[in-house]
Amino acid sequence: MTQTVIKVQNVSLEYPRHRHLLSIFTSKMRKQKNNFQALENINIEIKKGEVIGIIGNNGCGKSTLLRIISGIIPPDSGECLVAGNISLLAGLGTGFSGHQTGRENAMLYGSILGYSESQMVEILPEIIEFSELGAFIEEPLRTYSAGMKARLGLAVASAIEPDILLIDEVLGVGDPNFKEKSTNRIMEMVKGAGTVVIVSHSFGMLAEVCDRVILMEKGRVHSIGIPKEIIRNYYDLE
Amino acid sequence: MTDDKPAINLLPVGQRSSSLSAPFSNILIAHEYKFLMKNLIGRTVRGRYRNSMLGYLWSVLEPLLLSIVYYFLFNMLAGNPDRLYGVWVLIGVIIWTSFGKTLSATITSLSANKGIINLIYFPRVIFPISLMFSNIVLSLMSCIVIFPILYAYGVEPSLYLLYIPAAVFLSGFLGIGLGMIFAPLNCVQKDVEHLFRFIVRAGFFFSPVMWTYEMALERGTFGSTLLTLNPMVTPITMARHGFAGHSTTLPTFSIVYCISFALIMWVVGSMIFNRYERQAVKYL
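^ inputs. structure came back:
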């Protein structure tokens, strides 16, 4: 029996909906529910070495679930257990500062993602090479195109080698030339990482790489199973 | 292998350390995340004046210009100020800015870093601490202007000048503690941020920035009450005495009051921040 590395037990989460003082009082008076149920009683167990896909319509709680697993948001009830270090690949280039050079931003982004200084110094040449920025790496980031920023972001983020990799819709970034390279890089990461959870709308890719797929609907797990069946379920939903 | 066994190294994610130990653990966290802090401080400090021609010079120019304005204002209203009045205002502005900027930055520390917070988990206390150090660095850079002024006024530099960086640190530390109490609340209600912008502005007048400790002493009960209650009196006055090159004439009570005030704010702020930041992040 292989080891369970992610165990989500009875996890529920509500997002507060109203943000004004007055509405807090009025809703208390009317005993109205003023929260948005993002996740409701989720139970998932993921084994070591599995590649799991999560699909579902926008707002069904896919990204929220990844945030719970990576410890960004604590669940209101239930528990999430994880074995090994975990890394969320999302929003490439978050925290970049336009005033600093590409090199400085690579260091900044790397430190945000949890690299140590010595690790960063070691992998920096590799990052610069992969990002194909050449001499641009010494230019301030505000002079970069969106594609260049995405390349730098991916180059830094993909250097991580976590036990558990969570991917939230970051496939195929950059211009068409780089798209293939970036997809390949992420596929390499998927193969290299022990366990992977991918949130994506590219069903073709999911069917290819995933062992199991989870279909979510309105904060609940609709079904879990082999990719083809679950993707069919998704189309039956509508 | 039984069913329970594989769960041995399964650890719950996002465990929070006890908020009772927060005032101490936050210091250890800051040490542990030095590299991240260094980069975040670099981002803030380099970002502040980067798109301007005069760049860093603005950190010196801003308090300098402000003190010139107040010099003329004071001349017009009260007439004939102290020879060093302009310098007192300059020092007051620098020290007050260290406090005010740290306070406002700490209050918005969570909401301003929404992107990073939604990307990865690390102890969020890193944000206020790195912002405090950024503002201390910027204030220390402003302090450089004091050297040519010493020369211009023919004041002999002395070791008491060290009061000035000490005052920058103390006021920054006052700012972070107070700010951390309200930072989680600001995620829920943005009003906090607006309220504190006003408080920082009003506090400017209730602290000895445009006036001095000595002036307030001549104002009877109102002046002395203000001097006793306002913790910002100590750092600003200390820095001025440091410039003048003598040991501070502040009563020991004021210094003890200010330092304990800052420490209590840090303790309370750390506890509240660590207790509520995880919940507050949901509102971002």
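Chain B has a mean pLDDT of 89. Chain B has one domain: 54-283.
thumbs up if we can close this ticket
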